[in-house]
Inverse folding.
């Protein structure tokens, strides 16, 4: 709460100095305010809020990187001459550690937009997420990769 | 100077986005079955559309329009996986996977399909 | 070359690319073979059409087209969800009366 107030104040001050109260300018001011309060977090903000914010930023950065990688990889597969040889499709059951609806939804969306994976279904008891894989090499390695990558990051954001 | 830079960057993003959209369409035509096609449509489609919207944001030089375009891109990134997921789930329940070649299908083992799809 | 000329040229090129992409997606809509394939291709078609309208916005400089593009994306999502739910209801009907 304290942090939100600080950032709003900083954004308003930025807009006032610029003489421009357009939404984009306010947003830009808020971004600069966030950056400065991160640098001065010891004196301004509660440490837990900042840690969570940093995790959200880290998840978003990882997501945008993986999104671009996945688009390039799909494009590469589409352009190969012998398309069936490049594929090894399958559906893998991924054991979920996440429990709430919003966590599972976020994880499923992230999985769909990352390289070679697409979430198909969630079991009735919400323990398993079924993931379609474009090029399946090692089932256990894939499950470990998701568990240690996105699932852990989602868990950290919501904890 | 910044204006020129934003314009050039916008042009590059516009072309890249169009190429991704084209490759997504080629993928939907060339890939062998529904699930692999879904990979092409959801990833290349979302990235292509998102890139074009960000390009609009870069070349418009208007804060309200740029904000709208970025919100549109975020909306696209949120909804594309949801619709792909819905379609994949429904098709699997309808028994589509029996017509495809998959190396393992752990979902079919857990819940046998309930109906047949119309050809 | 001025910035405006560059923009107009790239927008025209991307309109051509997106037009070809739409044609390819339409081929998949026509040949199917199942309902799911058609719905998937239609979904991609609306996303490409949205990009097409956005490219027109850049080419003409009329940013009103951007709103059209965003509402087209919204419409495409709703259409896909509606069609998927229609398929689900039909599968359930078959269950009830084997």
């Amino acid at each position: 709460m304290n942090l939100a107030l600080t950032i709003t104040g900083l954004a308003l001050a930025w807009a006032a100095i610029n003489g421009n109260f357009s939404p984009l300018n306010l947003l830009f001011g808020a971004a600069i305010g966030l950056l400065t309060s991160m640098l001065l977090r010891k004196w301004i903000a509660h440490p837990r809020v900042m840690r969570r914010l940093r995790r959200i930023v880290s998840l978003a950065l990882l997501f945008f990187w993986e999104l671009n990688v996945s688009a390039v990889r799909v494009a590469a597969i589409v352009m190969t001459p012998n398309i069936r040889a490049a594929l090894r499709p399958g559906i893998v059951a991924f054991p979920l550690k996440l429990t709430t609806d919003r966590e599972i939804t976020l994880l499923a969306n992230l999985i769909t937009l990352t390289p070679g994976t697409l979430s198909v279904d969630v079991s009735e008891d919400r323990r398993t997420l079924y993931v379609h894989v474009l090029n399946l090499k090692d089932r256990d390695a894939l499950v470990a990769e998701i568990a240690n990558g996105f699932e852990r990051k989602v868990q950290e954001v919501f904890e | 100077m910044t204006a020129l830079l934003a314009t050039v960057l916008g042009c590059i993003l516009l072309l890249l986005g169009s190429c991704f959209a084209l490759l997504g369409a080629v993928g939907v035509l060339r890939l062998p079955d529904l699930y692999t096609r879904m990979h092409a449509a959801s990833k290349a489609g979302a990235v292509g559309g998102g890139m074009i919207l960000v390009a609009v944001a870069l070349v418009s030089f208007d804060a309200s329009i740029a904000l709208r375009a970025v919100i549109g891109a975020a909306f696209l990134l949120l909804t594309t996986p949801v619709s792909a997921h819905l379609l994949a789930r429904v098709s699997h329940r309808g028994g589509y996977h029996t017509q495809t070649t998959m190396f393992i299908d752990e979902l079919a083992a857990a819940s046998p399909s309930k109906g047949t799809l119309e050809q | 070359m001025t910035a405006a000329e560059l923009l107009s040229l790239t927008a025209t090129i991307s309109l051509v690319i997106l037009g070809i992409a739409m044609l390819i997606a339409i081929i998949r809509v026509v040949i199917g073979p199942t309902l799911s394939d058609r719905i998937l291709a239609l979904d991609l078609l609306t996303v490409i059409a949205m990009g097409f309208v956005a490219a027109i916005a850049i080419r003409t400089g009329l940013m009103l087209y951007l709103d059209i593009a965003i509402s087209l994306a919204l419409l495409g999502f709703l259409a896909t969800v509606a069609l998927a739910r229609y398929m689900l209801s039909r599968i359930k009907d078959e269950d009830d009366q084997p």
User: Anything to note?
Assistant: Chain C has three helices and no strands. Chains C and A do not touch (no CB pair under 8 Å).
